[in-house]
Q: What sequence folds into this?
């Protein structure tokens, strides 16, 4: 069985599995408690020990579903790292006081959101808490103060951000050391390689987390001409190497020197295992650039 290794983040003492299990769709998977426990156990057996959440996932419901599994099998908690995010306010029946979709990175909201995530996940601490999106009203000093309080209280051990630009990341990181920036990246969305996001993180020794590494499934089924050409190139490499298509994509992402940590989005352990398999081989530089050329439609100066 493939065993996924771990990777150190920029925050001393925090290691995440090289591939992270994304839970944002758990509410759509139709699993009862025992099935959720089984999925978690199978991930842990693969070495995928880090689980990515956000307070808003499943209209504020996914953390509770995961927490039910931990309540039923408490011993699982010590074998994993829990990641969550806060800062987006959705209009939802579970939040009747939210009258408009908006962002909130005030200290009061960050602390209240973290404490609610702890209750929902049935745990006494989060290994990692991220600000979900940049907030136009974000006060970097206030955010840093909230992080400091949560760490002092032992409720959150490490902190990061998600979807931040290089400059936004560095502004907050100067005030409070951050472990990661979770951003969208795939062969269908390569902007972080060209907008200084990945360059800046590599310079600071901060591995990014990557969401939607398979382009939200579009790599498999999009009828867009560029996606179809890209799919053909990846399939050629997959066939030549005798490696699964999805594993080749994950290997392509993990080859970057900033050491991205991809997040899966599937409730099928087989799909998570394909991501973990990507840690067992490396693409040649030629194959890596074949994929990039297809992704950018030969636009390499």
A:
């Amino acid at each position: 069985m493939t065993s996924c290794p771990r990777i150190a983040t920029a925050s001393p003492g925090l290691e995440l599995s090289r591939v992270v299990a994304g839970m944002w769709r758990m509410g759509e998977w139709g699993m009862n408690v025992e099935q959720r426990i089984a999925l978690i156990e199978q991930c842990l057996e693969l070495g995928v020990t880090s689980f990515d959440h956000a307070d808003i996932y499943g209209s504020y419901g996914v953390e509770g579903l995961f927490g039910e599994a931990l309540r039923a099998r408490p011993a699982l908690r010590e074998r994993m790292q829990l990641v969550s995010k806060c800062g987006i306010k959705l209009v939802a029946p579970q939040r009747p006081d939210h009258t408009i979709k908006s962002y909130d990175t005030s200290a009061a909201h960050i602390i209240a959101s973290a404490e609610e995530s702890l209750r929902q996940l049935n745990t006494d601490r989060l290994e990692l808490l991220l600000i979900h999106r940049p907030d136009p009203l974000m006060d970097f000093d206030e955010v840093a103060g909230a992080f400091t309080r949560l760490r002092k209280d032992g409720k959150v051990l490490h902190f990061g951000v998600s979807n931040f630009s290089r400059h936004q990341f560095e502004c907050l990181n100067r005030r409070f050391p951050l472990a990661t920036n979770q951003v969208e990246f795939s062969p269908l969305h390569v902007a972080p390689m060209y907008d200084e996001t990945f360059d800046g993180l590599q310079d600071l020794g901060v591995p990014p987390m990557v969401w939607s590494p398979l382009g939200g499934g579009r790599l498999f089924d999009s009828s867009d001409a560029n996606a179809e050409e890209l799919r053909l190139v990846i399939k050629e490499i997959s066939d030549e190497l005798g490696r699964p298509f999805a594993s080749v994509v994950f290997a392509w992402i993990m080859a970057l020197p900033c050491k991205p940590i991809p997040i899966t989005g599937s409730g099928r352990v087989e799909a998570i295992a394909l991501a973990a398999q990507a840690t067992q081989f490396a693409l040649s530089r030629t194959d890596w650039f074949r994929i990039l050329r297809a992704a950018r439609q030969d636009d390499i100066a």
About this structure: The mean pLDDT is 96. The first strand starts at residue 6 and ends at 8.
